[in-house]
Amino acid sequence: MTETVAQWYAIRTRSRHEKVATRELEAQGIPVFLPLATSVRQWSDRKTKVEMPLFPGYAFVRVDFLSSDRVRVLQATGVVSFVGPKPAEAAIPEEQIESIRTILLRKIPVEEHLFLTLGQRIRVRSGSLNGVEGILVAVKGMRTLVISVEPIQRSVSINLEDYEVETV
């Protein structure tokens, strides 16, 4: 019998249902990752810090695509589908999920970035981001690390000025 392995997959959610879907999947014991970034929102009478999805409309689940967990994910409130024309082949590398997790855990400021597929792949070799991988680009003369999640065609970027890097 072939042993199957759980991998990360992107799921598409209904508009503004990322947190609802995540809570329900967590309650079912399915590993789920919803990257959240804190932003300041202005209302007429106050400013408030709000945690918003880094990739609106998407979350990530770690499942064996051929198991019954896939069906449980699709039945969760707010989940629309797995991402990709052939979702079973669209597993997201563990390194991409861990890189995003590390950046958010270290509270490094992130910005949305155009999705990139070309460019030199690098790994940060110093500081709190040691081991984070992505694509090196230059924006306005500054070194920037872009982490792209291919199945959802989304990227985030961080400033690399104070970090040593090496090619992968």
Quick overview:
With 168 residues, the chain is an alpha+beta fold.
Roughly how many Å is the radius of gyration?
17 Å
Report the average pLDDT across residues. Answer: 89
Provide the succession of SSEs: EHEEEEHEHEEEEEE
Number of domains: 2
Residues in β-strands, percent:
35-45%
Give the CATH topology of the largest domain.
Alpha-Beta Plaits
Main β-sheet, spatial strand arrangement? 7-11-10-9-8-12
> Which descriptor suits the 3D outline?
globular
CATH superfamily of the largest domain: NusG, N-terminal domain
CATH class of the largest domain: Alpha Beta
By DSSP (H or I, 4+ residues per run), the number of helices equals: 3
Describe the biggest sheet? 6 strands, antiparallel
Helix/strand class: alpha+beta
Question: Could you explain how this protein is built, in words?
Answer:
The protein is α+β, with helices and mostly antiparallel strands and 168 residues long. The chain has two domains: 83 residues, 2-Layer Sandwich (Alpha-Beta Plaits), CATH 3.30.70.940; 74 residues, no CATH class. It has three helices and twelve strands. The strands form three sheets. It has a six-stranded antiparallel β-sheet. Strands 2-5-1-6 form a four-stranded antiparallel β-sheet, with helices on one face. A hairpin with an 8-residue loop joins strand 8 and strand 9. It starts with 6 loop residues before the first strand and ends with a strand. The mean pLDDT is 89.
